[in-house]
Amino acid sequence: MLTLTGVGKRYPTGDRALTDIQLSLPKGQVMALIGPSGAGKSTLIRCVNRLVEPTQGSIRLEDVELTKLSGSRLRHARRSMGMIFQEYALVDRLSVMENVLSGQLGYVGFWRSFLRRYPQEAVAEAFRLLERVGLPHAIDKRADALSGGQRQRVGIARALLQSPKLLLVDEPTASLDPKTSRQIMRLIRELCAERELAAIINIHDVALAQQFADRIVGLRAGEIVFDGKPSELTSDILTTIYGEEDWDTTPEPADDDEDGEQVTHPAEPLRATQSHSVPRQSLLASGGAQ
Ligand SMILES: Nc1ncnc2c1ncn2[C@@H]1O[C@H](COP(=O)(O)OP(=O)(O)OP(=O)(O)O)[C@@H](O)[C@H]1O
């Protein structure tokens, strides 16, 4: 449903951020984008929704060529791409409900949403979404009275209110503790499955990427150097992506989830017995391999 062909980006400063990116993302697939700082992860996500202009190549969302759009057609196409941000991008002085309803901006127009007149069906859907993300009791709270995890749940509900086909997620857990990070990744994954939504998640935590993504793409210096299943991410590949590091030297974690439940891994986790594999525990250290 999303296809990038030969996508390149050179910033006006001369920095080449992306080179010849080829990617095809089917409906419902959750893809984690990993790579060192400056590899081009944010640039790639921003090229898709045209917050950054690609300088080469084609980006198609279903049958729409995104790189050629401007004005109202670009605004229309952006409605089908929900953005979820690291810092949540909520309006602090507004309530949770108002923040979620701001996801309707692309539909109801600036003045109508500024004046806070939203269609009844949008309000009903916002209630349903807040219930689904686990915030039914926080509807009237101001956004600045919420914890980081709750703020991210509001950000997720806001992105879903625009009924996107694709989620673009930029470091959703970077400001969260390990337990909340897992809960947020699990929620994103479940919602993608429920709604057959594709997602690109830019993430630094390799262990989280492995546990909650269907597919991992590794970027290095603007090029794709790995594209495969979480179970295929070996220490050799991590070295290709991030450079030399001893990936095997962190303590072994408990096998249970934070709530005592057995962890379900959507993808086969790394096993220490694989040849050249990275023991899972080596990646489960907070922050992962950065
Ligand atoms: N607005 C900009 N102007 C010029 N160069 C930029 C701009 N934004 C990013 N770059 C450059 O493009 C390259 C890729 O940056 P990008 O932010 O996409 O990487 P990243 O993988 O998301 O990094 P991080 O994980 O630190 O967020 C870097 O060399 C960066 O310096």
Automatic annotation (TrEMBL):
Pfam families: ABC_tran. Gene3D superfamilies: P-loop containing nucleotide triphosphate hydrolases. Residues 2-246 form the ABC transporter domain. Residues 272-284 have a biased composition (Polar residues). It is a peripheral membrane protein. This is Phosphonates import ATP-binding protein PhnC. Keywords: ATP-binding, Cell membrane, Membrane, Nucleotide-binding, Translocase, Transport. Residues 243-261 have a biased composition (Acidic residues). InterPro entries: AAA+_ATPase (IPR003593), ABC_transporter-like_ATP-bd (IPR003439), ABC_transporter-like_CS (IPR017871), ABC_transpr_PhnC (IPR012693), MetN_ABC_transporter-like (IPR050086), P-loop_NTPase (IPR027417).
